[in-house]
Structures are given as structure tokens and as C-alpha cells.
Amino acid sequence: MHRQALTEDTFYLNLGPQHPSTHGVLRLLLRLDGERIVECQPILGYSHRGHEHMAQNRTYLQFMPNPCRMDYLSGLMYNHAYCLALERACGLEVPARAEHLRVICAELNRISSHLLWFGAYLMDLGAFTPFLYAFDDREDILAILGLATGSRLTYSYCRFGGVRDDVGQDFLEGIRAFIPKMRARLKDYDTLVTRNVIFVNRTQGVGVISPELARAHALTGPCLRASGVGYDIRKAEPYGLYPELDFDIPVRAGGDCLDRYLVRVLEIEQSLRIIEQAMARLPGGPVKATGVPQFITPPPGLYHTSYETARGHLGIFLAADGTRVPYRLKFRVPSFGNLGILPKLLPGTLVADTIAILGSMDVVMPEIDR
């Protein structure tokens, strides 16, 4: 950002990199005219960890724990996406039971991610009670996923050609008990938050993103669908079990903070629908493909895989040279693309609305500073 000369009424303000509402080490350099933002520059890189460089120094299997540590709130989906990328490159077939378990766990992870965002967002706006409700529901999901994966956050459950272990009845019964409880809680959220006049006034008409602006800045996920563009990788480029399931893609037309909130809440209900269908048709059989080599070696070539995480489009680009180690493994993460709209979106808004706008984007910094 080219720094313009300051006048009597303008000054620079650093929001972050150690501010609770940035949800990570993000720094927004704001130029203000009184309380109104004139310019915004997001400054990244405070926690860069070199995951992509690590990929070039490890075998494909050794790199397995890394993707789930990029977006730690969508860790299981990143784990699923990485395995999917290698399976497509190597032509591996995944058993039907494993495909069902992957989708069930991924959608539970999506709900978990949205619940954490929901609680933290309301906390940013000054409401404490929704945070407690959301984390109570999220705790149920973490307990269920812990039964299958042994982890609560950075999951590494998928394997090339399937999943690590089959699940037991306690896992299945936990899900059957969770679904009606979550549906009942959605009604509580509607009363407590969605119809709350203070919350509506705080978010409606704030941070409006038009469909044209969303496309121009390559927004994906709920941020894009809240602007009236019904694009979801699970429908546009189906993978796994999703082509066989019946679910809708929530879309809102307003493009403001309220619509970005509503899209995520509606997505929780759709994820419950997906889980119910996958549970109802869960087949027996193995959970791992046979004949998968210990050291997986994709044929030389360039490969790309797309995946819909809780924040949007995850793209994995693989350049394979016929060895056990990737020549290049590049991740296109949704938070980086979604964050890039802030210099266009924030000018003209108030500093007080910056927290509402940034929170509505649901940015996870470790996947940007990967």
C-alpha cells in the first residue's frame, strides 16, 4: 500500500497481529479518517511454517500428518483431500464403506468448524451465551470423531485407499443421538441469535459483497454463496460419495455479514442431511483397498484435485516425477483468497464494523501462513 501523506484528520492504526478478533497473527494496517477506513492492507506471514517445502523433503506417506495442520478447524477435510489427490494420481479405488465413513467424518468436521466460527463470531460482537451453546454442541462432535480417529483436532484418519480403522457401534450410536440434538439446538440458535434485533442491526447491510466483486476476487465457500453465487465443489466437481447423495447448497443474495452467517447455519442442516443418508446406506466390507504399496509412487505428471472445505475451495496441485517424494505440492487455500477482498471491502466502513466484517469471512491464519 502506498502510504499517503497524513492530514490532521487521518492516521494509521494497526489492528493485530496480536488482537483477539483477528483469530490468529493477522495484521491489518488501516488508514483512518476519524472512525472511517480510507485504506486497508492485510499483512501476512507472521506464522509461516513451510509445509509445502516439507512436502518436497518427505515421502507421500510421511507428509500425511501435515495437511490437517494447515486449516486445523477443517483438519479431517484436508486429510481427506490429500488422500483423494494421491488416489486420483495413482488410480486407486476406495472401498464403499470407507467412502461412506470419509463423508460422515468430513461433514461432522464441517459442522464442528461452523460451530466454532459461530461461537467466536458472536463473542467478537459482544454476545457470550451463544459461545457456550456452540462449544457444548462441538464437544459432542469431538467426542464422536475421537472414537474413530483418536484425535480431537488435527485428524489423520484417511489413508491412501481408505481409512485407518473401521468404526464401532459406539461411533454410530453417538451420531444417531447427536443429530436430533443438533436439530433442536438449531431452533435455539434461531431464537437466540438469528432473530435477535441487536445482532441483525449489527450485521445487516454491513460489508456487502456483490456477486461481481465476489467473482473478481475469487471468493469461495460460504462467502461466495452468501453473495448469490451457488458454487460448491461437492456439486460442481463431485468427488467421493457426494454424487449419490441428496442435499442442497444454501445461497443468499444480500452478500452482507448477516447472509454469511445464515449460509453457514443453513449448511449445518445440510451436513446433517448428508450424514443421515450416509449412515442409512452404510455398507459392510473392508475399509482399505488391497494392493496399495507401502511407498506410493504416482506416475510422472501434473495433477490437480479440488475439495470443498468449511471455508471454501481447496485446490491441491501435484507435480510428480516418479519418485517417492513430491517434486512440488502446492495448496490453494480458501482463506487466502477470501482475505484478499478486504482492501476493496473495508474502505468507507467504520472501524467498529471491521470486526464484524473480518469475523464474517471465517479466516483461519495457519492455512494462509502454511
Unreliable residue runs: none
- Tertiary shape: globular
Radius of gyration (CA) equals 21 Å
User: What's the total number of strands?
Assistant: 8
Largest sheet: 3 strands, antiparallel
What helical percentage do the residues reach? 40-55%
Distance, first to last CA: 23 Å
Label the structural class: alpha+beta
State the strand order across the main sheet. 1-2-3
Percent range for β-strand residues: 5-15%
Write the H/E string, N to C: EEEHHHHEEHHHHHHEEEHHHH
Which whole number gives the mean pLDDT? Answer: 92
Helix count, DSSP H or I runs of 4 or more residues: 14
If you had to describe this structure to a student in words, what would you say it looks like?
The protein has helices spanning 51-55, 75-90, 96-124, 129-149, 169-194, 197-203, 211-216, 222-225, 233-236, 257-280, 334-339, 342-345, 351-361, 365-368; strands at 10-15, 27-33, 36-43, 158-159, 162-163, 301-308, 313-320, 328-332. By secondary structure, the protein is α+β, with helices and mostly antiparallel strands. A hairpin with a 7-residue loop joins strand 7 (313-320) and strand 8.
Features:
8 strands, three-stranded antiparallel sheet, 370 residues, 45% helix, 14 helices, alpha+beta
List the helices and strands and how they pair.
Layout: E1 10-15, E2 27-33, E3 36-43, H1 51-55, H2 75-90, H3 96-124, H4 129-149, E4 158-159, E5 162-163, H5 169-194, H6 197-203, H7 211-216, H8 222-225, H9 233-236, H10 257-280, E6 301-308, E7 313-320, E8 328-332, H11 334-339, H12 342-345, H13 351-361, H14 365-368
Antiparallel strand pairs: 1-2, 2-3, 4-5, 6-7, 7-8
Helix pairs in contact: 2-3, 3-4, 3-10, 3-13, 4-5, 5-10, 10-13
